[in-house]
Amino acid sequence: MSNRLINWFRYASPQSFYPLAGKLIPWFWALAALFGLTGLYIAFFVAPTDFQQGEGYRIIFIHVPAAWMSMFIYLVMAFWAGLGLALNTRLSGMMAQALAPTGALMAFLSLWTGAFWGKPMWGTWWVWDARLTSALILFFLYIGFIALQAAIDDARRADRAGAILALVGVVNVPIIYFSVKWWNTLHQGASVSLTKAPTMAATMLWGMLIMALAFWMYSIAVALMRVRAIILEREAHTEWVKALPEVRGSTS
Amino acid sequence: MKPRHKRIALIAGGLTALSLAAALVLNALNSNIAFFVTPSEVAAGKAPLDRPFRIGGMVKEGSLRRDNLTVHFVITDTAKEVPVTYTGILPDLFKEGKGAVAQGRLGPDGVFAATEVLAKHDENYMPPEAGHAIEQAQKAQQTLKQ
């Protein structure tokens, strides 16, 4: 490998990734707080009320970023799981395991806030339309992934089993995303997409995008914290973990 | 072929096969996944007459009529129309010219007796002033046409 390029494979080892993650975490927390506060300020004080829904539409500032995140985290989780399966790298499985609870949280948040919005707007908490049902399946996939990994004691075998589940479930993500296009659903179509101009007022859109950034930063920060804990747990027998000041201090 | 490449090929092949299977299943289920049928589909005889189903479309402008607790309105997809009756409370977003989904049975007289009515929101979000301006513009256009 040439010297001019960063040797990315160096960070594939838990030993070198652990301190790197530790250095990055505060930055992601700071950005999460910055975007979160800005986004919430816009959401509550700057963005106008909606012409039909009144104040109730403000749930989108949580609902849409959470729903985006739940789908995106699943893709990233499946990517890491697949990478771990193909290359047999230790860190990949740990990354997948670290992302799952945050993804499950996001999926739950999108379902929950959606139900709160659905009651006043549609007139029902829940309907079995394609978008809602496939989003619920995504939540179950996360729960299934977490449960399967937890049920197998050997970490490497747990990773492989989880990876297969994660990869099978990846089929569901495009179904969620395109469900409102492919079928008649009660859920409205996308207001923001790559193929057409957004159908939202600019301040509403900015508030939502900044909130989405905040959710990104939060997700990265907690995933990195969780992966550090998983590294410590799984590599507890190694010399380098035993030599860490935070580990030495707690065991002596 | 290294074992690593074999595994990558296996994963890629597996995912392709899986997506293909999913696409075929979804295609086969197509009509069952749809949350509602449109008035055009009802007119074409695609709606089940022996069991309840959902019908969706726009509430026709000027068709909403209240008769004590029972409301009468017409659901349209601009091509075909289906009259609907419903007794109960309508959701807040239920309005003429906006989307709605009704669940119930189609009677022999062609009137859809709904047991539940849901408002279907569209993907447009804007401040009240903008919404008002658009409504005014649409009205102006309509009067110009007439």
What does this structure look like?
The complex is a heterodimer of chains A (252) and B (146). Chain A has 252 residues and is mostly helical. Helix content of chain A is 74%, strand content 0%. Chain A has a domain at 58-202. Chain A contains nine helices and no strands. In chain A, α2 (60-87) packs across α4 (130-151), α3 runs antiparallel to α4 and α4 packs antiparallel against α5 (155-169). The longest helix of chain A is centred in the first third of the chain and has 33 residues, at 14-46. The mean pLDDT of chain A is 89. A five-stranded mixed beta barrel of chain B has the order 1-3-4-6-5. Chain B has 146 residues and is α+β, with helices and mostly antiparallel strands. Chain B has helices at residues 3-33, 39-43, 128-145, and strands at 53-59, 65-67, 70-76, 81-87, 99-106, 112-120. Chain B folds into two domains: 1-33; 39-120, Nucleic acid-binding proteins (OB fold (Dihydrolipoamide Acetyltransferase, E2P), Beta Barrel), CATH 2.40.50.140. In chain B, β2 and β3 form a beta hairpin. The interface between A and B is large, with 40 and 43 residues.
Provide a quick synopsis of the model.
The complex is a heterodimer of chains A (252) and B (146). Chain A has 252 residues and is mainly α.
Give the secondary structure arrangement, pairings included.
The complex is a heterodimer of chains A (252) and B (146).
Chain A: H1 14-46, H2 60-87, H3 90-121, H4 130-151, H5 155-169, H6 172-182, H7 202-234, H8 239-243, H9 245-251
Helix pairs in contact in A: 1-7, 2-3, 2-4, 2-5, 2-7, 3-4, 3-5, 3-7, 4-5, 4-6
Chain B: H1 3-33, H2 39-43, E1 53-59, E2 65-67, E3 70-76, E4 81-87, E5 99-106, E6 112-120, H3 128-145
Parallel strand pairs in B: 4-6
Antiparallel strand pairs in B: 1-3, 1-5, 2-3, 3-4, 5-6
